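Below is a filled-in request sheet from our internal design queue. Each sheet records the structural input a requester submitted and the sequence that came back. We keep these sheets so that new team members can see what a complete request looks like end to end.

REQUESTER: design group, bay 2
PRIORITY: normal
MODE: inverse folding
CHAIN LENGTH: 118
BACKBONE (tokenized):
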């Protein structure tokens, strides 16, 4: 899939539209989901133009992958859900219902979440 530079997360990265930022470093940006599914619902996105997990996992450098994963862990800790627990979710492609074609993970927590696909 060719990266669409007009997707909403690309526009957030360029500062063209606002977000409720919770964390940023050279590898990742994290912000509150606009339609939260739980008391804590944060999106973490890499800075590079990757369409989904399939693209990121195969094309990103080891440094980009490590930096992104480290940032996601920090974000969850800062959100205060490390002790109570949280779920990491990444949608790839049509069956997953991926809406935004810039790779992102959801960090969801702050309440009991039930079973994975409930
Ligand atoms: P996905 O289905 O995994 O692609 O999830 C996309 C997520 O992005 C959804 O949970 C949306 O609520 C969220 N979202 C869409 N636009 C924005 C935005 N401008 N700011 C924050 N979150 C957004």
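RETURNED SEQUENCE:
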């Amino acid at each position: 899939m060719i990266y669409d530079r007009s997707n909403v997360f690309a526009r957030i990265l360029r500062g063209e539209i606002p977000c409720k930022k919770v964390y940023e470093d050279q590898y990742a940006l994290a912000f509150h989901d606009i339609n939260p599914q739980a008391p804590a619902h944060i999106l973490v996105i890499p800075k590079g133009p990757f369409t989904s997990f399939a693209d990121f996992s195969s094309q990103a450098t080891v440094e980009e992958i490590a930096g992104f994963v480290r940032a996601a862990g920090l974000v969850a800790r800062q959100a205060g859900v490390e002790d109570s627990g949280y779920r990491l979710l990444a949608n790839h492609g049509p069956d997953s219902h991926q809406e935004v074609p810039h790779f992102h993970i959801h960090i969801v927590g702050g309440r009991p979440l039930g079973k994975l696909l409930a």
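SHEET NOTES:
- The pocket of adenosine monophosphate is lined by residues 8, 19, 31, 33-35, 43, 91, 97-100 (CB under 6 Å).
- The radius of gyration is 14 Å.
FILED BY: M.R.
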